[in-house]
Protein backbone atom coordinates (compact mmCIF):
# COMPACT_ATOMS: atom_id res chain seq x y z
CA UNK A 1 0.00 0.00 0.00
CA UNK A 2 1.24 3.45 -0.88
CA UNK A 3 0.75 5.17 2.47
CA UNK A 4 1.26 8.67 1.05
CA UNK A 5 -1.53 8.20 -1.51
CA UNK A 6 -3.74 6.63 1.18
CA UNK A 7 -3.23 9.61 3.50
CA UNK A 8 -3.99 12.03 0.67
CA UNK A 9 -7.13 10.09 -0.24
CA UNK A 10 -8.31 10.00 3.39
CA UNK A 11 -7.67 13.74 3.64
CA UNK A 12 -9.73 14.34 0.49
CA UNK A 13 -12.67 12.36 1.90
CA UNK A 14 -13.02 14.90 4.70
CA UNK A 15 -14.15 17.41 2.09
CA UNK A 16 -16.79 15.15 0.53
CA UNK A 17 -20.29 15.98 1.69
CA UNK A 18 -22.15 13.06 0.12
CA UNK A 19 -22.00 9.26 0.11
CA UNK A 20 -18.59 7.91 -0.81
CA UNK A 21 -16.52 4.79 -0.47
CA UNK A 22 -12.75 4.66 -0.17
CA UNK A 23 -11.66 1.19 -1.17
CA UNK A 24 -8.17 -0.30 -1.12
CA UNK A 25 -7.29 -2.61 -3.99
CA UNK A 26 -5.00 -5.33 -2.64
CA UNK A 27 -1.51 -5.49 -4.11
CA UNK A 28 -2.05 -2.47 -6.37
CA UNK A 29 0.16 0.58 -6.75
CA UNK A 30 -1.43 4.02 -6.94
CA UNK A 31 -1.43 3.87 -10.77
CA UNK A 32 -3.01 0.37 -10.88
CA UNK A 33 -0.37 -0.83 -13.35
CA UNK A 34 -0.48 -4.42 -12.09
CA UNK A 35 -2.38 -6.89 -14.29
CA UNK A 36 -6.11 -6.86 -13.57
CA UNK A 37 -6.00 -4.11 -10.93
CA UNK A 38 -7.47 -1.35 -13.09
CA UNK A 39 -10.30 -3.75 -13.97
CA UNK A 40 -10.96 -4.20 -10.24
CA UNK A 41 -11.17 -0.42 -9.87
CA UNK A 42 -13.56 -0.16 -12.82
CA UNK A 43 -15.80 -2.91 -11.46
CA UNK A 44 -15.91 -1.34 -7.99
CA UNK A 45 -16.70 2.08 -9.46
CA UNK A 46 -19.43 0.68 -11.71
CA UNK A 47 -21.03 -1.13 -8.77
CA UNK A 48 -20.96 2.07 -6.68
CA UNK A 49 -22.55 4.11 -9.48
CA UNK A 50 -25.27 1.51 -10.02
CA UNK A 51 -26.03 1.40 -6.30
CA UNK A 52 -26.03 5.14 -5.65
CA UNK A 53 -26.92 6.79 -8.95
CA UNK A 54 -29.33 4.37 -10.60
CA UNK A 55 -32.72 5.87 -11.37
CA UNK A 56 -35.49 4.60 -9.12
CA UNK A 57 -37.93 2.23 -10.79
CA UNK A 58 -40.80 4.60 -10.07
CA UNK A 59 -39.22 7.43 -12.03
CA UNK A 60 -41.68 9.47 -14.11
CA UNK A 61 -40.81 9.33 -17.83
CA UNK A 62 -39.56 12.54 -19.39
CA UNK A 63 -41.72 12.09 -22.48
CA UNK A 64 -45.26 10.84 -22.81
CA UNK A 65 -45.91 7.88 -25.15
UniProtKB/TrEMBL annotation:
<protein>
    <recommendedName>
        <fullName>Alpha/beta hydrolase</fullName>
    </recommendedName>
</protein>
<dbReference type="InterPro" id="IPR029058">
    <property type="entry name" value="AB_hydrolase_fold"/>
</dbReference>
